[in-house]
Amino acid sequence: MDGKIYDYEEEKKILKQRGHKFTINNDPEFCLHLYEEEGENFVEKLPHHKVKDYLRNSDIVIDQLLMGWHGVFALEAMASGKPVLCYIREDLKKYSPELPILSTSPENIYGNLKLLIEKPNLRQELRRKGRKYVEKYHDSKKNCSKDN
Fold first, then answer.
1. What is the pLDDT, as a whole number, of residue 104?
2. Secondary structure class of 64 (helix, strand, coil)
3. Do the Cβ atoms of 44 and 63 come closer than 8 Å?
4. What pLDDT score was predicted for residue 52?
5. 3: left (phi over 0), alpha (psi -120 to 50) or beta
6. pTM above 0.70, yes or no
7. How far apart are CA 59 and CA 10, in angstroms?
8. 10 Å Cβ neighbour count for 8?
9. Using CA atoms, how far apart are residues 71 and 78, in angstroms rounded to an integer?
10. Does residue 118 come out as left (phi exceeding 0), alpha (psi in the -120 to 50 range) or beta?
């Protein structure tokens, strides 16, 4: 990530009106204030093209850590060839045994991030399997054809 978000002046103005003080005036600071205001859903306030920029420039993607299943963002990340950390409940794993997501909770996030950072082969394997998984199970042209 190069640390640049463009076209967020309106959102920044709203944050200032709510009492947020910007001292550095860079994009990570903006994201921090947006997170303080919106919580874990702060990414939903960013335009989709900005989220895609973050995704493109990331090495590892963290999706939902509490819900127990992945969201659309994890699918976008896998389609982009990014390894994904997300909490997958044990009782739901049977419905998608090929799911190439490293199941992660707040309790084991440090260890799982460390694992992916230290094991480039595992990152590469999750990238490859993630892309194939999305192509196999979430390709609208393939899965919504008349033949299926």
1. 96
2. coil
3. no
4. 81
5. left
6. yes
7. 29
8. 17
9. 11
10. alpha
- The two three-digit tokens of residue 137, written as one number: 């199970």
The two structure tokens encoding residue 133: 């998984």
Cα separation, 124 vs 39, in Å, equals 31
Query: Contact at 8 Å (CB) between 41 and 64?
Result: no
Domain architecture of the chain: domains with CATH: 1-57 (no CATH), 59-148 (3.40.50.2000)
Instruction: Give me the pLDDT at residue 147, please.
Output: 58
DSSP for residue 108: T
Q: Give me the amino acid identity at 52.
A: K
Series of mean pLDDT values for 10-residue runs along the chain (148 residues): 57 91 81 82 75 84 92 92 96 95 95 94 97 90 63
